[in-house]
Amino acid sequence: MDFGQAYSPDNLRFLMEGLGMTLRLALVAIILSFIIGCVLGVIRYARVPVLSKLVGILVEIIRNLPLLLLIFFARFGLPELGIKLSPFWAAIVALSIFEAAMISEIVRSGLKSVEKGTIEAARASGLSYMQTLRHIILPIGLRRMVPPIVSQFISLLKDTSLAVIISLAELTHNANIVMGQDISIVLPTLLLVAALYFAVNYALSIVARRLESKPT
Amino acid sequence: MIDLTVLTEHWESYFIGLRNTLFASLMALAGSFALGTVIAVFRISPIKVLQACGTAYVELFRNIPLLLVVYMFFLGLPALGIALNGFVSGTLGLMVYTSAFIAEAIRAGILAVPQGQTEAARSSGLTYVQTMRYVVLPQAVKIVVPPITNQFLNLVKNSSILGVVAGLDLMYYGDLVNADTYNTVDTYMFVALFYLILTLPLAYASRLMERRFARSG
């Protein structure tokens, strides 16, 4: 093992660039998947005729496919259908759609956990269905969803490593290139990359735990 | 339109890929169940050192990407002079990664067994290991089955990682078919279909069990 060569300034800078790309990818995908996931979750919860069923089937299919397949498809399948995306946006599209499907399930079960009595009380005091949803069900439900949604974001951050297969220059991809230099720096590089992922995710999971212990 | 000849001319590739995916998932499940049970027992054991080891293991593998765990077997071990092929290192990676999640599911199941049961068993003269083996674990299994079915579902999906390390799974064979047909959309449509054949029944089963166990309390 050659730690000196593995952690040379050039290699470190290259890995940090990869980490930057990983974080950017995760951030954009987190924002998009949260918005899409909330919309889909509310549609499924609200039981809009036809639309809710359709969303339900789509969510079920996407949730049960490997993300790797979706990333690959977004980069190499979509161009055949006339949609050309750069590796970055292909990864964003696949990650956002997949994680949105996951988040929509969390949102739906969070909304379902709001007690019937609360909803009936709101309706009885004259709020319309949309008002009840907007002012009563969503605020209560969303607060309960915070811990599972943060764990989903941790999954998302880990899943960004799958963008390796479309050669996006994120952390795992750059680590692969560094490891190609020499076999003696494979283990030190793997250790460093694992430590980087761990640090980011562990920080997130501490946030999740803090939110979980807060009384709602 | 979907070109059915993609399937009819390459069904053998799809079939081998599907079989290997299922095989890798089942082996990883068996391994991660055994490993996960040990880690879970570590985490709730009264011995502080074991507890710390179990917690470190779970936190470590839950917070790093699966691909990195697979790389440790696929690229890391050869650096130490042990060379494994893609299928074996992929399956080992899946096993170690999933065991952390299964350990958490089992721990939750064990903690759900009332404390009084353990105390009664201990006071009637059973050792800690005997208490676990004959009293706590048999009861915990019932609580643990639905989340573990879910983990198996994740395992089948995650096994696609074998495609990254030339692990001869469905993703890998999909790649081969694609190289032959140049029809990416249809080729991967069928890959997706084969994954759904494995995952949808599992999703349905886990939901059914969750509902049934919820009703029986």
From TrEMBL, chain A:
Locations listed in the record: Cell membrane
Protein keywords:
Cell membrane, Membrane, Transmembrane, Transmembrane helix, Transport
Query: Entry's InterPro entries?
Result: AA_ABC_transptr_permease_3TM, ArtM/GltK/GlnP/TcyL/YhdX-like, MetI-like, MetI-like_sf
Please name the Gene3D superfamilies in this protein's record. MetI-like
Which Pfam family, any one of them, does this sequence belong to?
BPD_transp_1
The answer to keyword Transport applying to this record is yes
Membrane-crossing residues?
A: 23-43, 55-76, 88-107, 183-204
Q: How is this protein situated with respect to the membrane?
A: Multi-pass membrane protein
Q: ABC transmembrane type-1 domain spans which residues?
A: 19-208
- Transmembrane helix listed as a keyword: yes
Q: Which NCBIfam families match?
A: HEQRo_perm_3TM (TIGR01726)
What family name appears in the similarity comment?
A: Belongs to the binding-protein-dependent transport system permease family.
Its protein name is: Amino acid ABC transporter permease
Instruction: Name the species this protein comes from.
Output: Paenibacillus mendelii
What is the phylogenetic placement of the source species in the record?
Answer: Bacteria, Bacillati, Bacillota, Bacilli, Bacillales
Automatic annotation (TrEMBL), chain B:
InterPro entries reported in the protein's UniProt record: AA_ABC_transptr_permease_3TM, ArtM/GltK/GlnP/TcyL/YhdX-like, MetI-like, MetI-like_sf
Any keyword Transmembrane? yes
Q: How does it sit in the membrane?
A: Multi-pass membrane protein
Alphabetical keyword list? Cell membrane, Membrane, Transmembrane, Transmembrane helix, Transport
Coiled-coil spans in chain: none
Q: Where in the cell is it found?
A: Cell membrane
Identification of the protein by name: Amino acid ABC transporter permease
Matching PANTHER family, A to Z? GLUTAMINE ABC TRANSPORTER PERMEASE PROTEIN GLNM-RELATED, MEMBRANE COMPONENT OF AMINO ACID ABC TRANSPORTER
Please report which protein family the annotation says this sequence is part of.
Belongs to the binding-protein-dependent transport system permease family.
Q: Which spans are transmembrane here?
A: 22-45, 66-88, 185-205
SUPFAM superfamilies from the UniProt entry: MetI-like (SSF161098)
Outline the extent of the ABC transmembrane type-1 domain.
18-206
The organism's place on the tree of life at top rank: Bacteria
